[in-house]
Design a protein that fits this description.
This protein is of the alpha/beta class and about 950 residues long. About 45% of the residues lie in helices and about 15% in strands. It has six domains: about 1-160, DNA repair protein MutS, domain I (MutS, DNA mismatch repair protein, domain I, 3-Layer(aba) Sandwich), CATH 3.40.1170.10; about 165-345, Nucleotidyltransferase, domain 5 (2-Layer Sandwich); about 355-495 and about 670-695, MutS, DNA mismatch repair protein, Chain A, domain 3, CATH 1.10.1420.10; about 510-600 and about 635-670, no CATH class; about 710-920, Rossmann fold (3-Layer(aba) Sandwich); about 930-964, no CATH class. The strands form five sheets. Strands 1, 2, 3, 4, 5, 6 and 7 form a seven-stranded mixed β-sheet that branches. A hairpin with a 4-residue loop joins strand 9 and strand 10 (about 200-205). Helix 14 crosses helix 24 (about 670-695) and helix 20 (about 535-550) packs parallel to helix 23 (about 635-670). The termini are far apart. The structure holds adenosine-5'-triphosphate. Adenosine-5'-triphosphate (ATP) binds next to helix 25 and helix 26. Adenosine-5'-triphosphate binds next to helix 25 and helix 26.
Length: about 950
Amino acid sequence: MTQNLMQRRKKRARKSKDIVDTDTGAAPTKRTRKKKDAVQEDDHVEKKPKRTVKPKKVAEESDGQPSSTLAKEIRENLSKFPHCLLLTRVGNFYESYFEQAVEISKILNIKLTTRRWGKGPMVQIAFRCVGFLSYTSTNTSKFMVQQHKRFVAMCEEFPKYTSLGERETIISLLSAYPTEGNLDPTTLGLTWIDVSTGEFYSKRTSYDSLRDDIARIGPREIVLDKSIEQSTHPVLEAIAEEDTVVSFIAPSYSADNVTAVESESDEESSAESALQGEASPTPIANVTDEITTAQDTSPSTPFVYTTQETSAIGLLTTYLQANLLEHMPHLLLPNREDSGGRMQIDSHTIKALEIRESMREGGVRGSLMSSVKRTITTSGTRLLARWLCSPSTSIQEINARQSLVAFLHSRPHFRTDLLDLLAKAEDAGRIVQKFLLGKGDPNDMLALTATVNIWNNIQRRITLEREMESLEQRSFDATEWASLDTLMNRMVNLEELAQRISLAVENPAPSQLDESQGSSSEATNEESDDYSQDTGPLRAEWRYGRVKFGIKIKPEFSPTLLELNNILKDLWQQKARMEERLQLKYDAPSLTLRSSPGQGMHVHLAKSKRDQRQLNADPAFVSISETGTTRSYFYQDWSQLGQQIFTTSIAVLAAEKEAFETLRTEVNLHAPSLRRNARVLDELDVTLAFAQLATDLNLVRPSIQEDTTYNVINGRHPTVELGLLTSGRVFTPNTVALTPSSHFHVITGPNMAGKSTLLRQTALIAILAQSGSFVPADACSMGIVDKLFSRVGAKDDLFHDRSTFMVEMLETAEILRRATPRSLVIMDEVGRGTTVKDGLALAFATIHHLVSVNRCRTLFATHFHELSDMLGYKDSSMPAGQGIFNTVAFHCTTVNEMDGGTFSYSYRLRPGVNRDSHGLKVAQLAGMPILAVAVAQDVLTALKSKPAEELDANELASLGQALS
Ligand SMILES: Nc1ncnc2c1ncn2[C@@H]1O[C@H](COP(=O)(O)OP(=O)(O)OP(=O)(O)O)[C@@H](O)[C@H]1O
């Protein structure tokens, strides 16, 4: 299937050329460039000849050389790097031309051909050329550099618009495909992938939700259909605010293309857990117009990708194929993310609530993530971010997560042991992806094995805990264990794979190797190789080559390898015997058999004056060089034996490489199971982290139900509480009780008295609760929140031509359009960005709409105490529900005035309305000059009898005059 796709996808994005990473084939990144520079210094690989490919135009130059663009660039590069062998990437090949082709064909033992440029006899130029497949380039170039001591320059081509190679870690790609024709015009297909881990998702979405999806996913790059590039398509509007690279491509795909996305197995489908609750990914089925998962083997409910999703998958796959070339990973069809099962948090809210990063500091510090993160693996941290940005709306799933948190919370020692084990695990998801991308070395292989062993140890530790609890007969409760069992039962036993790898791969331990002759470390390696006592450069070179190739496979891995190693061992022994024999025969103790690039296989005398007498008399030894003390000879017997050692060494290297490729294939075959286990461990990491968090921050288990209540007793803001603690202050907890009969609370109070904090903590507690975490409160019970909206903090967005007030209104409008009775809304100071009259009018209209149309749970903080009057508030003794809307209640914070003009904030919420903002106190605290504060005080006093809105222009002018 893949081949079909590849054939169909030959039409690629426009290409440009530049030097490339010889290891990865990816376009250079800042880091890879650096790395490459280092390699180039070490390995004589030159850098940066450049060429750009334009249509071939051939003409003969006066010197009889072809003058096509490619030919010119090759000659330019050759003259720029005269000391290098130049390899030029052309499609799937690296090619070498002219005289160098002859040399390379000899070195690599590949066929030399004759190529012609130009059409017609008049312009045809014949020249020598060799080429080899690009995927062999890493080893081939290393061979030329290391074995033949040649400098190599590589000229690479890659698509002009890709930024895939611009970073080591590619976070997410997202492709949104617009609807067409008679398809439902309100829906979109959305797919996204983390190329570094292979996590691939798809969902149906709408233009309204697209911005929220993007905010949650946080892609580095967005891929769109080229056909909408010049249009005013709503997708473009939705992504306009995003600070991401947007690529438009003309996809060479149809729905059928998706059939070529390679399925590894359906195993992964069950990997999605009761804890995670995401729908299963799809094994490839027959794709016609739509992709279906309806296969017998799938353990979970089949689902069907929509046509738009199918198109999005095709678009994204095309893009990856065009950019990753031969490093294109094997992809499973994506997991379906069903928005029905996730709390929708709009894009402003993700930013405003500082879930992933803080607004003030820009980084993670001060964010919810930073306060609650206790995960110890990077993949666990990624999962935590996903859970926090899209909490669940499934009570079953939330309960499963909470039960596991409770289970782990009550077993601190067990938790510590599991954490200790987890800390040693590698990011298996990323390693597997590396292998699927055709990368990965024996160290990765060993890391994977170690990780599989750690997984096994974790399972053993769990079994032990269960046995200990049963033995102690300490309230052993099988239902309590059910949450952990459900999670761990999803793991696949991969012990066999781990064993096979550890039996095959030896740790190359490069630090133990020394290229220099006769170093002290030689002995160690001789022992480990178990043959020959040779300390000559030929051997050092060969072993150096092994390490540089990153391969050391145990001989027992395959009969071929064993046989070759035995032959090699025998040859080394022959060499040792020959050396010993010659030393004795010619009475030359300093005689050694050596090889060097300049002299080939030669006999070396370290003390020539003493040892050369008898040797010189034997015509079998031909002197080839001498220095003050040393002398070298050609000796045919050694030359032949050395050559045999050399070719056998190369054969062993090739066999080890082949063996490694076999292992790589095995790892790739197990990729779904490896990923599945990795995901289980990620979930364990996050739940362990939640359990630890519950202990650290004294959190309680919330109770979640299917209603529209929100009852949090003495709730706290997790981040503000931590911030206060560092300065020795204590957070004042607050109770919020939203019920269907009192679902809208108006909060008034002085500046700086904790209104925004209360609003934010209300939202954060809902997020934590539905993520499966315990929450910062004395008690919490709440009905599922389907959508969370916030309108807090205002800042302008001049780049997108939006004033502060415009941003405020856009956000408010969106809430009024989208909130449902199951939603939770927090609104802070709506209407403050315009005149008092307009602001008041808009604030009232907003409340009116939220109460009577949306009917959602809302906290509405305001300094417009007049709103309370408009809403029918009388005084704090007024029973709830007695205003003009019977579901609106009033709460406030206040300041405690003390003797001597000092005051303190009471952050404690109480019923009622506070009409005093105490703004001047805050101004004073902020360091406003005393004179300015005094003038403000005079204005306030003057306005006490009659508010400013009621004064006409003349009255205001005379007031100003009086105060000046
Ligand atoms: N419950 C609390 N306990 C202790 N300190 C608090 C509490 N709530 C808020 N604070 C402190 O008060 C500061 C100001 O709080 P916040 O921004 O919520 O006030 P506000 O009423 O929204 O102010 P403004 O009306 O000026 O926007 C916080 O940064 C925090 O340091």
